[in-house]
Write a structure and sequence with these properties.
This protein has 201 residues and is an alpha/beta fold. The protein contains 8 helices and 6 strands, in the order ααββαβαβαβαβαα.
Length: 201
C-alpha cells in the first residue's frame, strides 16, 4: 500500500480508488461488500461501498451519518479519504480522539445517494433504520454506535440496538455546521472522547 492511499482527499485519484476496490475482497470487509451490493439492487439511488481500510466486521465503533454526499457517489466509498472537507474533518477528529481506524466502520442512516431528492422524509428514515439494523447484525464486536447529525439521531429510536451496545450522539462535522457554530467542534471532541472511553472499558 502506498502511503498516499490513506491521506486526506486520496480517493480523488483513480488509481487509489482501483486499489481500494480490489481490497473489498478481504475477509474483514467482504460481508459488508455483499450487504452494500444487496442494497444497490433494492434502492433507487447510488449506494457506496464500505471502506476496506476501516475495521469492517471487526469494528467496535459504528459511525452513522446522514446520507452519502456527491463525493461518495463519485468515489464509490464511504471514506475519510473522500475528496471533501467533511470527510477530512471526520478523520482528523477521530485521530485526535485516539480512536483506532481498525475499530471503526462508517455508514449512513440513508445508505443511498439521490441528487433529485434534497429532503429526507420520515419514511426515508424508517427505511434506512431497517437497513441499519441489518448492518448491525453483521458486526459481532460492536461496542458503540455514534449517530452523527440530527437526522441520523432522529432515526436512532427506530434502530434495533443490541444489548450491551452503547449509543453516542455527535454533531455533524461538515464545514457548514462547524463554521456556523463554534460550539460544535468542542461538542464533537467531547462525544468522541466518550467513545474512546467506552473502548477502554
Amino acid at each position: 500500500m502506498l502511503p498516499r492511499d490513506d491521506q486526506p482527499y486520496a480517493l480523488r485519484d483513480l488509481a487509489v480508488r482501483a486499489r481500494r476496490r480490489r481490497a473489498l475482497t478481504k475477509r474483514h470487509v467482504a460481508p459488508l461488500k455483499r450487504f452494500a451490493a444487496r442494497l444497490r439492487r433494492r434502492l433507487p439511488g447510488a449506494v457506496p461501498d464500505f471502506d476496506p481500510f476501516d475495521g469492517g466486521i471487526f469494528a467496535r465503533v459504528l459511525l452513522v451519518a446522514e446520507r452519502p454526499g456527491p463525493k461518495a457517489r463519485e468515489t464509490g466509498f464511504i471514506s475519510r479519504e473522500n475528496p471533501d472537507q467533511t470527510a477530512r474533518n471526520s478523520g482528523a477528529l477521530l485521530n485526535a480522539a485516539g480512536i483506532p481506524r481498525s475499530d471503526t466502520v462508517r455508514w449512513n442512516i440513508l445508505p443511498w445517494y439521490d441528487s433529485r431528492r434534497a429532503k429526507i422524509s420520515a419514511s426515508d428514515l424508517s427505511c434506512g433504520a431497517g437497513y441499519l439494523s441489518e448492518l448491525i447484525a453483521l458486526l459481532p464486536h460492536l461496542r458503540v454506535i455514534v449517530f452523527v447529525g440530527r437526522r441520523a439521531q432522529r432515526a436512532a429510536r427506530m434502530v434495533v440496538i443490541p444489548a450491551g451496545v452503547k449509543v453516542v450522539n455527535c454533531p455533524h462535522p461538515s464545514p457548514l455546521n462547524l463554521n456556523a457554530d463554534r460550539r460544535q467542534r468542542p461538542a464533537i471532541r467531547k462525544a468522541l472522547k466518550a467513545v474512546a472511553a467506552i473502548l477502554r472499558e
